[in-house]
């Protein structure tokens, strides 16, 4: 998907598609390749190898959907993540992005952003939350491009994106959610509802 456009933008072959659970080590390797500043921007703080190991593993079981840029050698060099909302009343699905230095300002982030929004729409979401470090100018610019309204607080930039807004259409199909991610999403949502029912006492025996 987007292969011809990617070749034009980057001068090399690559593809953008969803990442399945068995490929989570590729996400881990990508995050570890980020330079210190990029890693700090991505996680809004210090993130060592152990943290990234745990983070990548967690993404495999909590319903996170990942769309990634795969280079010709099969390595992941950019990723967009859609994290499911929690049970709080004002919770929104949250998105996050990471692009390695050699691919920045080549349009890869915009492609990932657009595809992640389409996937979120297909899941019935109406709004997304994005949080990044206040010093992350590239991410702030990308978020603004897609209509995010950012506010600044305690070193963070936080904003929401209205998925009902009209966005320019492309001729590219929306990326399909892999079966593994869809199953994890269903399991995650079911676990959330079970927790809600237990907390509210709805499923208690009379």
Automatic annotation (TrEMBL):
Pfam families: Acetyltransf_1. Coiled coil: none annotated. PROSITE patterns: GNAT. It comes from Rhodopseudomonas palustris. CDD domains: NAT_SF. InterPro entries: Acyl_CoA_acyltransferase, GNAT_dom. Residues 18-168 form the N-acetyltransferase domain. GO terms for molecular function: acyltransferase activity, transferring groups other than amino-acyl groups. This is GNAT family N-acetyltransferase.
